[in-house]
Every structure is written in structure tokens, then in C-alpha cells.
Design brief:
466 residues, mainly beta, 3 domains, five-stranded antiparallel β-sheet, 27 strands
Length: 466
């Protein structure tokens, strides 16, 4: 019995030793736990069309049946896009395919452009981050009416998309045909085109504004639609140059309603800075309005304000002597200083005086803004005309100069001169010299000679004794 128990114990002991010697390995399929979370892959970018909002040059949204509009000889295509990725690209590349060049109404050229991601304000007054793709497609003047598809390709980052827009041309030519014109069936609901507003005139008092002035600028605008009135019209003014500063309390005007074909006026006051260079300055008007059954429209109008830089020239007083003798020659220094920014041309000084014969005008030439120029007027003194050849005479120095517009200006300096006869200048008679005391002078000279002789005699004796 004891032996059996010992055998069973030995067997259990050997089994335990065998079990403790079996190596244990980890599952290769288990994820390593290094303390870091697994990062999800970024969502790829998809370009989405904003079909709910209306932006510049869009008569209606895509949800309302957006149709590209034509402005003069241009077709305006607007494509508002957004990106639903976490990291949207900063910009996208957009290009157009205009179809067969032989039948296309569009001028074939490179329209490819880079469109940045930016905040754009919609007609509801809110701003949205959009790639606002906008193409102004130039059209031929002899274009044919019809509906033309335009394919727009957009790519950015790892995203690419293609959109097809249809441009309806109604202001072109109809194709020539021998068949009688067919009457088109009338539509139940006529198409309402977006009314256009044009600038008829942009004026300022005197036609231009001088630097340093504040002037009102008046725009005469016209609703070109013959059937549609404009409602809730806002006109917002802006300028691109720092030389013009709007002086009105608000930059926006409001008009409740503008009738079909009616004209209306928008006026704004601008201050022109004193250092504004002369030239044309563009003023921009942004229009927003409603028409028909709640439809909205917008547009950008432009006008120009002519600014002139006043020409200010100062001429230093000419130093003319108070009197002169016949046959003398006078040299008179003239100086012109331009205190403005505009150049002065053909600057010259002309002398006119009875009794003076000038050698000609002093021509200073062109004096640039902020510069000065000097010259010399020379004249010979002659006798006066008439019965009194000598005496007081009056003269003038006239300065002439021309501004940038070609208009000549002048300024006169008057002077007086006393003309004297050449024989009136008598020499002053010499004063009589008082008689000199010659005796005293001779006595002093003789005494000096005697002293000098005595000195030599004494000196000679001293040498003989030695």
C-alpha cells in the first residue's frame, strides 16, 4: 500500500515538473499595446455644390433653377462649391470645355483659373466658406441664339468634379432658313429675366475735383427692364484708392422701389487728399435688389472721378534799380518756384518798359513739381519816347506758364525806373589843398641829415683811436 502511494506521488510530481517546463507564446494576432491610440485615416475631400444660396451674378439659386446670365458680350458662369473634408485644400483649379469651336458662340481661349477658399456673402446676408468659381466667357458679336452646354472641371487636392451648365443666348442672330417661321407655343409661365441697372452718368461739380477739396459725386442710374420694377434696392459705395475718403455717415443708400425703365440718382460726398496725384479714380457701387416674386439680383457698377492737382507757381520779386543812365545795361535775375505736384511748362519772363530795350525773354522752360528755376533778363537803357526822353518811367515783368491741361497763365510784377541823361553824371570838383608848411618839413629833414652825419663822424673817430 505504501509503495502504491509513493508511486502515485512520484507520478504527480513528474507531471507537475513537465507542466512547468512547457513554454507559453503570445498570440501574434493580438494588437500591441504601446500606450498610443490608433489614428483614423482623414476623410477624403468631396466637392459639393451649394444649391441653396445666391451669390454675386446669380439671378437665382441652383435649387430654384439657376441659369447663367449674359452681360453685354459676356456669359457669366457662377459655381459655388464647398468641401466636406476635415482639411479642405486652400484652393482648387477650374477650367471650362466650350465644345466644338466651329459652332461655339464663345471666344476660345484659356479660361483656367485658381479659386481660393474664402468667405463669401450670400443674398441672405450670411458669409459661407466657398470656392466661388466664376467665369466671364467672351462671346462673338455675330453669335447665334440657342442653348449651349459648358462643362466645368474642378480639381483640388485628392478631389475632382465635373459640372455641366447651360447658357441660353437670346440676344444673338437667328439662323437663316427658307422654311416659314414656326410659331412656338406660348409658355404658361413666361421666363422672367433678371433686370439690369446701368450707369448713365457719373458727374462732379465743374467736371473734376481739385486735390484738397470735398465734392459730391452724383450717379444717374437706370433700371433697363421694361416690365420689372426693383424693390428694396440698396446702393453701397466704395473706392479702391486711399486718396479718396467717403465723407457721408453711411456708405449705403436705400430705395424702396424703382419702377420699370425709371432713372434714379445716388449721390456720395468724397474728400480728395491734398497730395492726391492727378488722374482718374474709380468709384464702385454694389447693388442688391428684389424683383418679381421674391427673386433677388445684384450687380457691380463703376464710375470715375477726375482729380486735378492745382498748379501753384510763385515768382520771386525782381530787383530792378531805382535809376539808370542811358546806354547802361541791366541784368535782372528772375526765379520761379513750383509749390505744387503738377509740372509747369513753357515758363518765361517778358520785360516791357518805355526806355528799356530787352534782348529777349528769359526762358525758364519746364519747372517740375517742388522744383525751382532761375534765369536772367537783360536790357539796354535808352531814352523814353515822347517829348521828355529822361525821367520817371513805369514798366512790368510778365511771367507766363502753361499747366498740364494746356491752359496758359500769367502773373505781372510792376516797377518804376528813373532814366537819367549820360551828361547828368558830373564829376565832383577837387577840394583845394591847404598850403603845407614847407619850412618846417625842410628843417626836420635837415636836422635828420645833420644827426646822421654826426653819428658817422663819431664812429669813424672811435675806430681811429682803436
Amino acid at each position: 500500500m505504501k509503495r502504491m502511494i509513493m508511486r502515485i506521488g512520484m507520478t504527480v510530481l513528474m507531471l507537475c515538473l513537465l507542466l512547468t517546463g512547457i513554454p507559453v507564446t503570445a498570440d501574434d494576432s493580438a494588437p500591441e499595446k504601446d500606450g498610443s491610440a490608433v489614428q483614423p485615416e482623414p476623410m477624403p475631400c468631396s466637392l459639393l455644390l451649394d444649391n441653396a444660396h445666391v451669390y454675386d451674378y446669380m439671378p437665382q439659386s441652383y435649387a430654384e433653377g439657376y441659369e447663367p446670365q449674359t452681360v453685354g458680350d459676356y456669359a457669366v458662369l457662377v459655381l459655388p462649391l464647398s468641401c466636406d473634408a476635415d482639411e479642405a485644400p486652400e484652393s482648387v483649379r477650374a477650367s471650362v470645355s466650350l465644345g466644338d469651336p466651329s459652332s461655339s458662340p464663345f471666344v476660345i481661349k484659356n479660361y483656367e483659373q485658381t479659386v481660393p477658399l474664402a468667405m463669401h456673402t450670400a443674398s441672405d446676408g450670411n458669409a459661407y466658406p466657398r470656392y466661388l468659381v466664376q467665369f466671364w466667357l467672351a462671346m462673338y458679336t455675330d453669335r447665334m441664339n440657342g442653348c449651349y452646354p459648358v462643362e466645368v472641371q474642378v480639381s483640388g487636392g485628392d478631389a475632382a468634379a465635373s459640372f455641366t451648365l447651360y447658357v441660353n443666348i437670346r440676344d444673338g442672330l437667328w439662323p437663316q432658313t427658307d422654311e416659314p417661321e414656326q410659331q412656338l407655343p406660348e409658355k404658361e409661365e413666361p421666363v422672367i429675366l433678371c433686370p439690369k441697372v446701368l450707369v448713365k452718368s457719373c458727374t462732379a461739380p465743374d467736371g473734376a475735383a481739385a486735390a484738397g477739396e470735398t465734392v459730391p459725386v452724383r450717379f444717374t442710374l437706370q433700371n433697363t427692364s421694361r416690365s420689372e420694377a426693383l424693390k428694396n434696392v440698396t446702393v453701397t459705395a466704395s473706392v479702391q484708392s486711399e486718396s479718396l475718403v467717403l465723407q457721408d455717415a453711411s456708405d449705403t443708400l436705400f430705395f424702396e422701389e424703382i419702377g420699370a425703365g425709371a432713372e434714379f440718382e445716388a449721390a456720395f460726398r468724397y474728400a480728395v487728399k491734398a497730395d492726391a496725384p492727378a488722374g482718374q479714380y474709380e468709384i464702385t457701387l454694389q447693388l442688391d435688389y428684389a424683383y418679381a416674386k421674391g427673386m433677388t439680383g445684384s450687380g457691380t457698377l463703376r464710375g470715375a472721378l477726375a482729380v486735378s492737382q492745382p498748379l501753384r507757381i510763385e515768382f520771386s520779386p525782381v530787383a530792378v534799380p531805382s535809376e539808370a543812365v542811358v546806354s547802361d545795361r541791366l541784368e535782372l535775375n528772375v526765379q520761379a518756384m513750383n509749390l505744387s505736384r503738377s509740372p509747369a511748362a513753357n515758363v518765361r519772363a517778358v520785360l516791357e518798359c518805355d526806355g528799356l530795350l530787352p534782348d529777349g525773354a528769359a526762358f525758364l522752360g519746364e519747372v517740375a513739381g517742388g522744383a525751382e528755376q532761375t534765369g536772367i533778363l537783360t536790357a539796354r537803357v535808352t531814352s523814353k519816347s515822347g517829348s521828355e526822353p529822361y525821367g520817371q518811367t513805369d514798366g512790368s515783368i510778365t511771367f507766363y506758364y502753361t499747366d498740364e491741361a494746356g491752359q496758359e497763365h500769367s502773373e505781372v510784377q510792376a516797377f518804376s525806373l528813373n532814366i537819367k541823361s549820360p551828361f547828368s553824371e558830373r564829376k565832383t570838383e577837387p577840394q583845394q589843398v591847404r598850403p603845407t608848411n614847407w619850412y618846417g618839413i625842410m628843417a626836420a629833414i635837415g636836422g635828420g641829415i645833420l644827426l646822421l652825419c654826426g653819428y658817422f663822424v663819431l664812429r669813424h673817430r672811435k675806430r681811429g683811436q682803436s
